[in-house]
Specification:
Oligomer: single chain
Largest sheet: 6 strands, antiparallel
Distance between the termini: 21 Å
Bound molecules: calcium ion
Number of strands: 22
Number of helices: 0
Shape: globular
Order of helices and strands: EEEEEEEEEEEEEEEEEEEEEE
Structural class: mainly beta
Strand content: 35-45%
């Protein structure tokens, strides 16, 4: 999803699927004036969570081109304290908070695309982090998700390998350490973004990858054995030059089945793939954004994408 510089989200309700006449009215979502808080140079990705257990959400941002993560503790009123920088392996890019050791304090996970490392730092519960354990990756760890991938209670990690399109599973040991990885081909050659969701409704997370090099969405269903292992990928072509870039899961039609939503960066579209409930996805319905991925408002008349 794209936020415009003017603070507006706007999608044209006309879609590829020929539902223009029945589509709901356009919706504008307005935001108030924005505030700016300094981070290290070139902030790229963001994690949100309450790292000091004061009830106010805090932020951490990776700064690609540096070897630091900027941590900004929230005041609870929409403002943040000046940043504190944490040293990380070179090129921090992907980032997330999760309580890997289940001690009540969020821990910090960072994927570094220059050092080729995934790092875990233990949260102290006061906004600071101790130690740093880094796990080498074969190629650039562009994205990851944290979930309970196997049947035990500890959180695990699945990462997305940008340069070979693979997916790596790291099982959590419950003490902020990880075992693995076990690596699976997602069928393509590039992994740009990844998320998890239970597409087949068996209670275990499945993995969804977007591969802009091949214009594909790729799905790896869990193998049903509760061990954090996955079946061979199913590949869903998006159509030439759709360039899927980001992916999320949600039940967008409230039928109890998880669906997949992607952005298509260079055609400025949102694609919704409704789930069938058995792990398969339907053909996408696309929605045109009037805002390009760089946040500029498109002043042209919206294009109709029926049949493109
Ligand atoms: Ca906080
Ligand atoms: Ca913890
Ligand atoms: Ca599943
Ligand atoms: Ca659904």
């Amino acid at each position: 999803m794209v936020l415009a510089g003017c603070g507006r989200i706007h999608f044209d309700p006309r879609s590829d699927s020929g539902t223009a006449d029945d589509a709901p009215a356009c919706t504008d979502v307005q935001f108030g004036p924005h505030s700016e808080f300094a981070t290290a140079s070139n902030p790229y990705k963001l994690a949100v969570g309450d790292i000091d257990n004061d009830g106010a959400l805090d932020l951490a941002a990776t700064a690609i081109g540096t070897s630091v993560v900027s941590v900004l503790r929230g005041n609870g009123d929409g403002t943040f304290r000046p940043r504190v920088e944490l040293a990380m392996p070179s090129g921090p890019f992907s980032i997330g908070f999760a309580d890997l050791d289940a001690n009540g304090n969020l821990d910090l996970l960072v994927g570094s695309v220059n050092a080729l490392m995934i790092s875990v730092r233990s949260g102290n519960g006061d906004g600071t982090f101790s130690g740093s354990t880094s796990y080498p990756t074969a190629v650039r760890p562009r994205a990851f998700a944290v979930a309970r991938l196997d049947a035990n209670a500890t959180l695990d990690l699945v990462s997305c390998e940008q340069d070979n399109g693979a997916v790596s599973v790291w099982l959590g040991n419950g003490d902020n350490s990880l075992s693995g990885p076990t690596t699976y081909s997602a069928g393509g050659t590039e992994c740009y973004s990844l998320t998890v969701g239970d597409l087949d409704g068996n209670g275990a997370p499945d993995v969804i990858v977007v591969d802009p090099s091949n214009d594909e969405v790729q799905v790896l269903l869990d193998n049903g054995q509760g061990v954090g292992a996955f079946r061979a990928a199913t590949r869903y072509p998006t159509g030439a030059n759709e360039t899927p870039a980001a992916v999320a899961t949600a039940d967008v039609d409230h039928d109890g089945v998880t669906d997949v939503i992607t952005t298509e960066a260079f055609t400025r579209k949102i694609a919704v793939y409704l789930g069938n409930g058995d792990g398969a996805l339907q053909q996408p319905v696309r929605w045109q954004s009037r805002v390009d991925p760089r946040g500029r408002r498109d002043r042209r008349r919206p294009r109709r994408h029926r049949g493109d």
